[in-house]
From TrEMBL:
It comes from Halomonas qaidamensis. SUPFAM superfamilies: P-loop containing nucleoside triphosphate hydrolases. Residues 4-232 form the ABC transporter domain. This is ABC transporter ATP-binding protein. InterPro entries: AAA+_ATPase, ABC_transporter-like_ATP-bd, ABC_transpr_LolD-like, P-loop_NTPase.
Length: 232
């Protein structure tokens, strides 16, 4: 589960500053919400802020899983190692560019989050996801040898490998053809449901958002600041 209240982050400084006020979020286990909105309005920034990659300028409440972390205090006191621990254990990222480590092959990229947690390299879930997404023939290849769409699929399996509390996905299907995009989204939703994770997905693909019936929060710019409004 994820609960956030009163969180603001800022991009840029001075006259260039752009304030992004995050929505009040309350995601139950197994719940996935789509973040939509025009380019440059702050959707990726929202994921970075929720993903503890960007210091908030304001934060009232942040809860991940059953524990309440005083994330505001961790940022205030610059406890980077504590923040890194939370990220590694509780969060799974599917970044726009894949974010795979170039010097590791696909199998080792997928195994990394589990190894960092002291878990076995593989799980039934990762093996099944690798098979479902047609990644078996790619396991020994380095990311530089993969297409962008293949990298996105690998990044998705890596993000779920350690079964985090929260999946954060930035345009996870952007580089995929419609059929592959549907398959990946379907698997995404299954994993969220089965493992009772929470998920935030930035997506421009309205037809997928509609097909899978995701609740939607839309980013809009009001008086130079980004705010988020729930849509039906
Ligand atoms: N590292 C950064 N430093 C300063 N400003 C940034 C940085 N990254 C993004 N921005 C600015 O913050 C604002 C929000 O960017 P962000 O990438 O979150 O938008 P987005 O809605 O995800 O866009 P897109 O749909 O095009 O990916 C933009 O004005 C952008 O120029």
């Amino acid at each position: 589960m994820l609960a956030i209240q009163g969180m603001t982050v800022q991009r840029g400084v001075g006259a260039q500053a752009h304030k992004i006020r995050l929505p009040t979020l309350s995601l139950a286990p197994g719940e996935c919400v789509a973040i939509t909105g025009p380019s440059g309005c702050g959707k990726s920034t929202l994921l970075e802020a929720v993903g503890l990659l960007l210091a908030p300028s304001r934060l009232e409440h942040f809860q991940l899983g059953t524990l309440q972390h005083d994330v505001a205090k961790l940022w205030r006191t610059d406890k980077q190692s504590e923040l890194a621990k939370l990220r590694a254990r509780d969060l799974g990222f599917v970044l726009q560019n894949g974010g795979l480590l170039p010097f590791l092959n696909v199998a080792d990229n997928i195994a990394l989050p589990r190894r960092l947690q002291g878990l076995a390299s593989e799980s039934a879930r990762t093996t099944q996801a690798v098979e479902r997404l047609g990644l078996m023939p790619l396991l020994q290849k380095r990311p530089s040898m993969l297409s962008i769409g293949e990298r996105q699929r690998v990044a998705f399996v890596r993000a779920l490998a350690h079964e985090p509390q929260l999946l954060l996905a930035d345009e996870p299907t952007a580089a995929l053809d419609p059929h592959s995009a549907h398959d990946l989204f379907a698997l995404f939703m299954e994993v969220v449901e089965e493992l009772q994770l929470s998920a935030l997905v930035v997506s421009h693909d309205w037809s997928l958002v509609r097909t899978f019936g995701l609740p939607r929060i839309d980013a809009v710019i009001v008086k130079g600041e980004t705010v988020f409004e729930p849509r039906v």
